[in-house]
Amino acid sequence: MSPLPAAKALDTFFLEARAKILEVAAILDRINRGNGASAVDHDPRLDRIRKALEVLHDQSGGRAERIQQIFSLEYDPSWDKPKPRY
Amino acid sequence: MYYIDPHIHMISRVTDDYHRMAYAGCVAITEPAFWAGFDRGSVDGFRDYFRHLTEVEPKRAAQFNIRHYSWLCINAKEAENVELSRGVIAMIPEFLNKPNVLGIGEIGLNKNTRNEATVFQEHVDLAMKYNELILIHTPHLEDKYKGTRMIIDMLKNDKRVNPERVLIDHVEEHTVRHALDNGFWCAMTLYPTTKCTPQRAVDIIEMVGAERIMANSAGDWGKSDPLAVPEFIQEMKRPGHAKSVIRKLVYDNPLAFYRQCARWQDWPAEAEEAKAKRKPAKVHA
Fold this sequence. Notes:
The complex is a heterodimer of chains A (86) and B (285).
Chain A: H1 6-33, H2 44-57, H3 63-70
Helix pairs in contact in A: 2-3
Chain B: E1 3-5, H1 15-23, E2 26-32, H2 43-62, E3 67-72, H3 82-91, E4 101-108, H4 114-130, E5 133-137, H5 144-156, E6 166-168, H6 176-181, E7 185-189, H7 198-208, E8 213-216, H8 228-237, H9 243-258, H10 268-278
Parallel strand pairs in B: 1-2, 2-3, 3-4, 4-5, 5-6, 6-7, 7-8
C-alpha cells in the first residue's frame, strides 16, 4: 500500500498541520495567561508536552509512536501475573 | 460501500443513529458489554443488561436491516469488585447459546490493577472452557501501553489461548505491532480526543498493512461518532487506496474473525458468494 507522494501529502495536510499547531500554541498561551501559571510550570504533564514538541523537530520519522511513548506509563515485564486455571 | 462497525455501544445511542448508519452502508455491528457510566450493584443488573444486548438491540437494529451481535463480560472498570465479577462470570453461560453472541468481551484492563488482572484471567478461563472468541479492551491514554503489554503477557502465558481467536481493540501507533506481531487480530478505534482519528488510522494501515486489522467507532454515551467507519472509508480513498483493500478492512476482515465463532451463520449474500467461488467455471468448447 503506497502512501501519498510527499508533495501531495504536503498539499493535502498543510492547512490541517498549521491549524493543529496553532491550537497547541493557543492552549499553552491559555495556561500561561491563567492565575498561578508559575505554579504549574513544573507539572509533569507540561514536561511531557515539551518533550513531545521536541520530537516534532526530529526528522527521523516515527514521531507519532514516539510521542505516544512520552505520554505512556512504563511497563515492567516482571509484574506478578495471575495464573491460568487449567 | 457496505461496512461492519465491529465495536459500538448502541444501548447508549438513539434509533436515528441506526437509521443514519444504514444509509451510510452499515450492514452489521457488534456490541461489547461495557461500563454503564456507573458501577452496577448486582448480578441481576448484568442479567438484565445481557437481555438487552441479546434480545432488544437485535430487534432495534433489524428495523434497518442491520445485523446485531454482542459480546458478554463484566468490564474492567467494575472488576475492582472481584466478588461481583465472579458472580457475573458464573452467570454469563446462561447467554452463551444465544445466536447473536460472538464471545467474551470487551474484557481487559483499565488502570492495570491486580484485581483487574485477576478478573481478566478468570474471563479468559471462561472463554477457554466454552471455546469462545475473545474481544479485548486495552486501557486509555497513559495506561494503554503498559496495559496492552500486560494483557499480551497474560494471553501468551496461557497455553490454551490461540491468538487467532483473540481481537485486541483500541490499538494505536505504540501498541499495534505488539498485537499483530504476537499473532492477534486488532482494531483501531476512531474516537475523538482520547483514541485515534480516521487520518491516523490510515497512517497506521500504511505502516502495518491490512492483515488481521479493522476499524470501529466505539460510539457510546460520550462525544463520539457512530459514522466514524464511513469517515475512515473516505480517508482511505483520499490517498487512493484500492477499493478491495478498504473493503477488506471494513467488511472482509471482521467477517473472517467472526466466522470462527461456532454459532456463526453466514449471511445469504456471503453464502452465495462462497458457493460461486467453489463452483468450477463452465468450459465452452
